[in-house]
Amino acid sequence: MNVIEIKNLTKYYGRSRGITDVNLRVEQGEIFGFIGPNGAGKSTTIRTLLGLIYPTSGSATVFGKSCAACPEIKKEIGYLPSEVFYYDNMRVIDLLRYSASFYKKDCTKRIHELADAMNLDVHKKIDDLSFGNKKKVGIVQGLLHEPELIILDEPTSGLDPLMQQKFFALIAAENQKGATVFFSSHILSEVQKMCNRVAFIKDGRIIRTEKMSDLQENSYKRIHLEANGPVTSSYFAMDGVRDLKMEGNTAGFLFKGNVNPLMQKLAALDLRNVSIEEPDLEEIFLHDYGREDRTV
Ligand SMILES: Nc1ncnc2c1ncn2[C@@H]1O[C@H](COP(=O)(O)OP(=O)(O)OP(=O)(O)O)[C@@H](O)[C@H]1O
């Protein structure tokens, strides 16, 4: 079953483009990544799914119900916005109890489990929390009712690396229990760790939807090396190397494919330093996808 189904969705804010002709489906139990640069249309898509804004044309459904016509579907969604704003005078626990009061179940136990998992002191006043701790309040608030669909919009901004790990473990556990996750981000590595499939959005349009396993096999890595002597291009004359740039004792290039033959060749160099980086989004857009449309 498709938990999310978006068909030919277009949203204009007055005359300015939000998203154009977006098509997406997210199946039950998936962790689906939604990735794109600033202004691409991620939040617009999410706000439409939550029924906070209405499509100019096309449709969006969650659990088979129209997002525009059925505001009650919000109760089945756990939403973590990219930025959280609260009444500063409240205590964390009071805010969380207030949020829980919108659901027809007792969320007390889950509130404390989540707060413990995220090292959040629920007895503090919100005013006294750091940005990262406020973000944790948002995480607990989004998950306390054990939603069947979790929508995350840039969820890790403001969390330190340890908390990011804890957060991802929480989301993975919710997914294991059956929750479907829609995960919007502009950080590819974050999405790569978690997701089964990913859609790329740029300038309001989906330019590609890809299984994560295919993406990892097919994407270029950026390799930089510095040798103790001059480097010649013969070391890099092999399939999978492109955009080779050499200067003195250094070389930089993109590589796709089996790394073993490359490493064997490079082992002949007297290397001072080497780095292998995952490509950033722009590189993936530029080198792997261009501007073609393709979906799986
Ligand atoms: N309320 C609004 N009024 C007018 N234009 C808007 C509004 N909200 C978004 N837009 C425009 O819609 C486009 C998509 O914006 P959106 O916020 O959905 O992108 P995003 O991918 O979430 O970006 P970011 O990563 O920066 O949050 C942008 O061109 C933006 O300027």
TrEMBL record:
Residues 4-228 form the ABC transporter domain. It comes from the Bacteria. GO terms for molecular function: ATP binding; ATP hydrolysis activity. InterPro entries: AAA+_ATPase (IPR003593), ABC_transporter-like_ATP-bd (IPR003439), ABC_transporter-like_CS (IPR017871), ABC_transporter_ATP-binding (IPR050763), P-loop_NTPase (IPR027417). The keyword Transport applies. Pfam families: ABC_tran. The keyword Nucleotidyltransferase does not apply. Keywords: ATP-binding, Nucleotide-binding, Transport. SMART domains: AAA (SM00382). Belongs to the ABC transporter superfamily. This is ABC transporter related protein.
